[in-house]
Amino acid sequence: MSRLTQAVVLLLFGGAVLRASLTDLYLRYVKEGLRPFLIGAGLLLVATGLMTLWHSLRAPGTPSPAAGTEPDDGHGHSHEPRVGWLLILPVLGLLLVAPPALGSFAAGKSGSVAAPAAESDYPPLPAGDPASLSLLDYASRALFDDGRSLTGRTLRMTGFITPGADGSPMLARIVLTCCAADGRPIKVGLTGRPPLEAAANTWVEVTGVYSTERAKDPVNDVDVAYFEVRNWQEIAQPKQPYA
Amino acid sequence: MTANRLDAEEIDWTPAAVGPPPPAPPPAPARPRRIGSLEILAAALVLLVVFRGPLAGLVAGERLQTWTTVFVSVLVQAVPFLVFGVVLSAVIAVFVPRSFWARALPRHPALAVPAAGLAGVVLPGCECGSVPIAGSLIRRGVTPAAALAFLLAAPAINPIVLTATAVAFPGNPEMVVARGGASLVVAVAMGWLWLRIGRTDWIRLPHRPDLDGESKAQAFWAACRHDVMHAGGYLVLGAAAAATINVVVPASWLQSVADNHVLSILALATLAVLLSICSEADAFVAASLSQFSLTSRLVFLVVGPMVDLKLIAMQAGTFGRRFVVRFAPTTFAAAILVGAGVGAVLL
């Protein structure tokens, strides 16, 4: 691979990273906090590409005296890293394919996250009727506090539909700690009037109340809480798809 | 004058792809013009853009789509660490004089190993960054044993990773101590082992254009370019392998081995290698594997930052295959033994 080609690949790679981090695309793959570092890395990649371009155009074929193998244009037996060609793959992935955020397939494959047990008493729910809360918060309050802080309130949660082991719809959201590779689902079972007609991967907003029903996720034996649905509506995928 | 040179180059590049007879530009020696990498790249890009529709259609299946998502996200997550690691290693290669390392590290190699291992504390990052840095250290005359101790220790014992571990195991603060201690012990032990039986000719650093004859700025950018292309390419390989494992291996397999003490340790050690999760995230994954014993999860945390598919690919690229086939399995065994031992005492 000639230096000029490497410059082009570097520019493409840096450009793809910059494009993903300047738009909301990166949120499908990593946490929001990584954004400044992604922009910095993208800028450095572009700078490296530009400097390579500049040096190879200004001084083409400067033979390095000691090495003698440094090719001026990539012909002959180049010691330039051939494996660098693979960097085109992430460029393709980010610019042409831009795969969607993890969804129902990933949620069905892994067991539900074990909801975190609170250290102390649960704080009261946020104001509002219905009160909005996250799936993780709901599962934690339901499983470790027997729903004490939930009873008597109408609740609202958002997530996507994923079929449970018996095929009935569950509400899920992928929890990220770093990037989508470590994404694990938090799943909540649905009773009452569950959105039976919503296809897997549909994003929904459900309103309803606490349910005492429990089950085990067959994949990893983790307790799964249930939610009694009164109402639901389809919504667009939120900007931040992960929990 | 510069403009003239540029013009000459443009004439050199453009017609070459079309016409086989070399127009022989004045400064360059006559050479047979074949299809160069730039032409291949251009053709590939044109094809990809033209066939964009069918290509995107190929990735329509759920499994393949999840693979692509995981592949892209492993890379996106690793890119900042890779780039900053590469820049730091270029700074080491170009701006830090060789004599600095002789002064900074203890003269005796056996003492330099633990010193280098502890130095890993100050480098907050994950494993992708430390591979090019360790390569750069060896190039600058640091004894390989010390550079390897640094390579193994840095991703595991830096403050960010230990904080993440503390957050992931709120009820078990001893997990942080166990992880830091076990990782440092493995790193130093591997360094000393290298001093005893390691052979320099196992390590083959990739040919890098000689930097000494060029201006500092030029050398710096050349080192950056080379390392990004090199380590980045291997990172792509590793990310593809990790994505494959992520999609192919069903999580229910793990459930069946969780109850056996020895099997669970081996299973999680293997899982750490296969999953290739960034060391800053692996504690949270370990926390979610709640059906496993704390000791087996400690082994997962000790093995992961030292041996995984992504690292093996990157180390093969930086230090050579002969090195990796010896180093990776030995580190793997050492990490399991030390992790299990420390777990038995502390957890």
From TrEMBL, chain A:
The DUF1980 domain covers 150-242
Entries under InterPro entries matching the protein: DUF1980, DUF1980_C
UniProt key word Nucleus: no
Highest taxon in the source lineage: Bacteria
TM regions (residue ranges): 35-54, 83-102
Keywords recorded for this protein, A-Z: Membrane, Transmembrane, Transmembrane helix
Query: Would the keyword Transmembrane be found if you checked this record's keyword annotation?
Result: yes
- Put simply, this protein is called Membrane protein
Q: Which organism is it from?
A: Paractinoplanes ferrugineus
Automatic annotation (TrEMBL), chain B:
| Any coiled-coil regions, as ranges | none
Major localization class: membrane
Q: Which UniProt keywords apply?
A: Cell membrane, Membrane, Transmembrane, Transmembrane helix
Q: Which residues cross the membrane?
A: 40-61, 67-96, 145-169, 175-195, 234-253, 265-286, 323-346
The way this protein sits in the membrane is described as:
Multi-pass membrane protein
* Subcellular localization(s) per the UniProt record: Cell membrane
Q: Does the keyword Cell membrane apply?
A: yes
Which PANTHER family does the record match to this protein? UPF0718 PROTEIN YCGR (PTHR34184:SF4)
Q: Which family does it belong to?
A: Belongs to the UPF0718 family.
What name does UniProt use for this protein?
Permease
